[in-house]
Design a protein that fits this description.
The complex is a heterodimer. By secondary structure, chain A is mostly helical. In chain A, 75% of the residues lie in helices and 1% in strands. Chain A contains twelve helices and two strands. In chain A, helix 1 crosses helix 12 and helix 7 packs across helix 9. The two termini of chain A are 38 Å apart. By secondary structure, chain B is an alpha/beta fold. In chain B, helix 10 runs parallel beside helix 12 and helix 12 crosses helix 18. Chain B folds into two domains: 226 residues, Periplasmic binding protein-like II (D-Maltodextrin-Binding Protein, domain 2, 3-Layer(aba) Sandwich); 203 residues, 3-Layer(aba) Sandwich (D-Maltodextrin-Binding Protein, domain 2), CATH 3.40.190. Classes of the chains: A mainly alpha, B alpha/beta. At the A-B interface, helix 10 and helix 11 of A face helix 5, helix 18 and helix 19 of B.
């Protein structure tokens, strides 16, 4: 039984990763007939010396943190709301999950129109903000471009996150709430001592997942801004694509991909470490 | 750049321009090509080996380009009626991502096509990667071997590409068939210019001043060109005539030349046009629609664009006209497009694909496609006075001193994608003002010198 699994893992995971690691130590160009040339750590050293690369690493972390923080807060709020008994709750659950179900590329095209400086509907909302007298250049000014990317990411991702939290909320034993209320607990205390511990494992694993997904999220950023202007809105996966596929420098691109893999692994290790420490503290 | 490279169509009449409409690609002398190449009967098609129905995939942006889509589907319908044993399947990508799609497929090692359209930069990669089959026999048996459609094809599409300055040798292999060529000109809205009482600009500064005066955001824009990173290929391409107008090129041999005054001037010009004239952030699809609707006054692009506007809005045929490029040397680029024959199809599909190519290239069908798309005629059969007189919007393009655009790339002709990625990365920062034109040019130069070192040692 283990053999097919082992073969599958070797073919689908181990071999491509090994190949990627090998390429990251070579000078290799896509679409050229010359074989890769072993260059040792050259690709990694050139990344370490590249201001552009560090800017992009910063972008990646900023994007992951900013988008995730907003997603978690909004998703939690929405899940708590949808967990309440109210008329039309089922319809509300369906409607709020629509952005997640919408095809990503089509959604980006619609959003890029909404962000048009002259004709986009987002200008109407911007006009409501005190101090904004001109239409923002949504996708070309670096800061508004980041805002636009994060906003669309949140819109796309948080419904899914909130559905998962809603599921976790519904698994909490209702009798716990009843008992706590008899003991005089208020809403905040109920949330802090029953709800939050009840959904904490789900929140933790989902936060880890959306962080890793955030590292590799491509269509929203690439289609909205192409990583530009310059590389000011490029994340690591976008720069990897530009380097390996657009600039055809597959060796350097492979090194970037390996750095991305290491970053994801580090976050996973950090998550496991923190989870264990918290678990021990609770014991 | 030698004279033959940039020999173009300056001082030609409109009809003269159309008659040598591969203009930008001029410079490639034809004589040596022609000796001993007797064409077989036009339209003659080889027998398809298999009796089973064969489906061939035809990859083109025409499938999704208004006007061209109908022209191509009509041709395919006629083809399938003539060859019921062959079916055509459409493979389409819009023109703005067409080259991206071909690059991605090349990177994956397999093209999803048995016949396809290709453009210059990608074409070279396709040949170098061994993805294409020679098309000599197709051009000869279709009966177009001695026409502009063949003789104006530049040397880099022939098998002996060791010296781009030399004329191709007819003993070598030809890897593409040209279906049209387009060259730059100034496209303008006649109504807007007349209502403003303005005259057409003759210098870059006049162009900027007029465009600024005609800009009334968001109702009317003085100028539109591509300027965003998601449209990298278009951004890079749209700067070419301006770079030529300022007297520059992107590279001289294997040395990038993007830190020259010409490039700095081009970047500075893009910055001021962005600030005062462009519909900021709008992509080509959006601003071309605006041009067709009469909301943009001026625009530099090639002669393939007006028919698109007419398809979007038939009324635009009354107000869209072309004029000389607004700089003294009148230099602009020419952009041929080609059919190519992928090498890795199975034999029965390859033969069917050859049949399709010969059918398309036969003079009658070639003419029909030329007229349907309002292309400049590449073969004499399409070059009738009635046809030429039906294109009043074409005259301005004839004044351009056309340079085949790949010559702008110097020795980087086979590395356009890598090159433009670096240029646009920095040009996009200049446009939005995060760095100066001088700094952008210098940074791009540094990046390109590293690239040159990697490519050429």
């Amino acid at each position: 039984m283990a053999l097919p699994v082992a073969v599958y893992l070797l073919l689908v995971f181990a071999y491509p990763i090994a190949q990627e690691i090998y390429l990251s130590f070579t000078r290799a160009r896509l679409l050229e007939r010359t074989p890769p040339v072993w260059v040792g750590l050259d690709n990694y050293l050139s990344l370490a010396e590249s201001a552009k690369f560090w800017l992009v690493i910063g972008n990646t972390l900023l994007y992951a943190v900013a988008a995730n923080a907003i997603i978690i807060v909004l998703a939690l709020g929405l899940a708590l709301l949808l967990n309440q008994a109210f008329h039309g709750r089922k319809v509300a659950r369906v409607v709020t999950s629509l952005p997640w179900a919408f095809p990503e590329v089509a959604a980006v095209l619609v959003w890029s129109w909404m962000y048009n400086k002259d004709f986009g509907v987002m200008n109407v909302f911007a006009g409501w903000v005190p101090g904004i007298s001109e239409n923002p250049n949504w996708l070309l000014d670096p800061w508004t471009a980041w805002f636009s990317i994060v906003l669309m990411t949140v819109w796309k991702i948080f419904p899914f996150f909130s559905l998962i939290i809603l599921t976790a909320l519904q698994l909490i034993d209702k009798e716990l709430y009843a008992a706590a209320k008899i003991d005089g607990a208020g809403s905040l205390q109920l949330f802090r001592h029953i709800t939050l511990p009840g959904i904490a494992p789900t929140l933790g694993i989902m936060t880890l997942l959306i962080t890793i997904w955030g590292f590799r999220r491509f269509p929203i950023i690439y289609l909205l801004t192409g990583g530009g202007p310059g590389v000011r809105t490029a994340t690591l996966v976008v720069l990897t694509y530009i380097t390996a596929i657009r600039s055809l420098n597959i060796g350097l691109g492979a090194a970037m991909a390996i750095v991305g893999l290491i970053l994801s692994l580090l976050i996973t290790v950090l998550y496991v470490f923190v989870t264990r420490r918290l678990g021990q503290a609770q014991i | 750049m030698n004279d033959r490279r940039q020999a173009g169509v300056s001082n030609l009449s409109r009809r003269g321009f159309l008659q040598v409409s591969a203009a930008g690609v001029a410079g490639v002398t034809a004589g040596s090509l022609l000796s001993g190449c007797a064409p077989v009967a036009p339209g003659a098609a080889p027998a398809v080996v298999s009796s089973e129905p064969v489906t061939i995939k035809v990859m083109s942006w025409w499938w999704v380009e208004k006007g061209s889509d109908v022209a191509l589907r009509n041709l395919v319908e006629k083809f399938e009626a003539a060859y019921p044993e062959i079916k055509v399947e459409e493979v389409s990508f819009p023109s703005n991502i067409y080259e991206d799609a071909q690059y991605s497929q090349m990177a994956a090692g397999k093209l999803d096509a048995d016949v396809m359209h290709t453009l210059e930069g990608t074409g070279i990669k396709l040949i170098e990667g061994g993805f294409l089959e020679p098309l000599n026999d197709v051009g000869k048996s279709a009966g177009i071997w001695e026409y502009d459609a063949i003789t104006k094809i530049p040397p880099w599409f022939w098998s002996d590409r060791s010296n781009f300055d030399e004329s191709p040798d007819d003993s070598g292999d030809l890897y593409v068939l040209m279906f049209n060529t387009a060259q730059d000109g100034l496209i303008y809205n006649m109504d807007i210019i007349e209502q403003a009482g303005a005259s057409l600009p003759e210098t870059q500064d006049e162009a900027y001043e007029l465009a600024k005066e005609l800009t009334d955001r968001p109702n009317q824009f003085g100028w539109a060109n591509r300027h965003t990173v998601p449209e990298k290929a278009g951004f890079f391409r749209d700067m070419i005539p301006w770079l030529l107008g300022y007297g520059g090129v992107y590279a001289d041999g294997q040395m990038p030349t993007v830190n020259t005054d010409a490039m700095i001037n081009t970047l500075a010009h893009w910055r001021r046009m962005y600030l005062d004239c462009f519909p900021q952030g709008s992509d080509a699809a959006t601003f071309r629609r605006m041009i067709a609707e009469g909301k943009v006054a001026l625009y530099t692009d090639n002669n393939a664009l007006p028919p698109n506007f007419f398809n979007m809005n038939p009324d635009s045929e009354n107000f869209i006209r072309s004029a000389a490029l607004p700089w003294p040397n009148r230099k602009g680029a020419s952009f041929p497009s080609y059919w190519a024959w992928p090498a890795d199809s199975p034999p029965e599909k390859k033969e069917a694909a050859r049949t399709f190519l010969e059918f398309w290239a036969s003079p009658d069908n070639f003419k029909e496609m030329t007229w349907a798309r309002k292309d400049p005629p590449m073969i004499p059969q399409a070059n009738t006075p009635e046809y030429l007189d039906s294109l009043p919007w074409m005259s301005g393009f004839a004044t351009t001193d056309a340079v085949p655009w790949l010559f702008v790339m110097g020795g980087f002709q086979g590395h356009v994608e890598e090159f433009r990625t670096i240029v646009v990365e920095h040009a996009s920062e200049v446009v939005v003002g995060t760095i100066s034109p001088e700094e952008g040019a210098q940074r791009a130069q540094q990046g390109l010198e590293v690239l040159a070192d990697q490519l050429f040692g």
